[in-house]
């Protein structure tokens, strides 16, 4: 039995949530180090120095600061992303004149992923802002930019609402969109091209877990290499707005380059590259297998 559009959307949403959960549980420590190095590059000499200082200051739990909002952010983002990815694939089929069940090329899948990411950014921005602030709370307090407070999700949310209102959680939305839309073109493009390479004439659906994880890792590397400076600016905007600074994307970008040099835009790139393979590999593995499982259950029914 062919699934209806509503059932297909529910399957994609659920599979995306599974993928987002796997991604966070696998890559959260690397993401924490990335955000710290992006926001306070003058405090850390490199990846190892950041890891050692984080451990000495707040212990092993410091690497998992922001895990709750990270889970919410990734589950929300990937649920919406993969659900909209299915819809956007149908839009691309209509635009290029293909039938509903026709296979899209790797380039067409990349375009569909890019369109879908714009919708995902709307749910990602508020939760990622809370995550980034929690991850850098120790540095913000130590540098005197904010007063000492309880480092909990709820305290960050209350503080944000009190200072800037609900719209304050969308600080960095423009930079999030600037990162997501082109970034996910390369993300899905790299993933689909890698799957085509490993399939080598067979159906992509027949690929095992190792090629899927490697393809997910390639997709993650492509995304971050393409848009990493934009992500660095976004992290600065979302974290430093906590202390009352309201600079926009262009102003923050110019300030970083002028005061710290262009290399500051690549602070934290190493942990991001290390994280890309396990985190995005786990994301696509969980997504593809949970999606296949649900599809087979509905077809059997």
TrEMBL record:
Family to which this protein belongs: Belongs to the mitochondrial carrier (TC 2.A.29) family.
Gene giving rise to this polypeptide: SLC25A15
Protein name in UniProt: Mitochondrial ornithine transporter 1
PANTHER family xrefs: MITOCHONDRIAL BASIC AMINO ACIDS TRANSPORTER-RELATED (PTHR45624), MITOCHONDRIAL ORNITHINE TRANSPORTER 1 (PTHR45624:SF22)
Function: Mitochondrial ornithine-citrulline antiporter. Catalyzes the exchange between cytosolic ornithine and mitochondrial citrulline plus an H(+), the proton compensates the positive charge of ornithine thus leading to an electroneutral transport. Plays a crucial role in the urea cycle, by connecting the cytosolic and the intramitochondrial reactions of the urea cycle. Lysine and arginine are also transported by the antiport mechanism. In addition, catalyzes an electroneutral exchange of ornithine or lysine for H(+), a reaction driven by the pH gradient across the inner membrane.
Membrane-topology descriptor: Multi-pass membrane protein
Catalytic activity: L-citrulline(in) + L-ornithine(out) + H(+)(in) = L-citrulline(out) + L-ornithine(in) + H(+)(out); L-ornithine(out) + L-lysine(in) = L-ornithine(in) + L-lysine(out); L-ornithine(in) + L-arginine(out) = L-ornithine(out) + L-arginine(in); L-ornithine(out) + H(+)(in) = L-ornithine(in) + H(+)(out)
Native species: Panthera tigris altaica (Siberian tiger)
Subcellular localization, as worded in the UniProt entry: Mitochondrion inner membrane
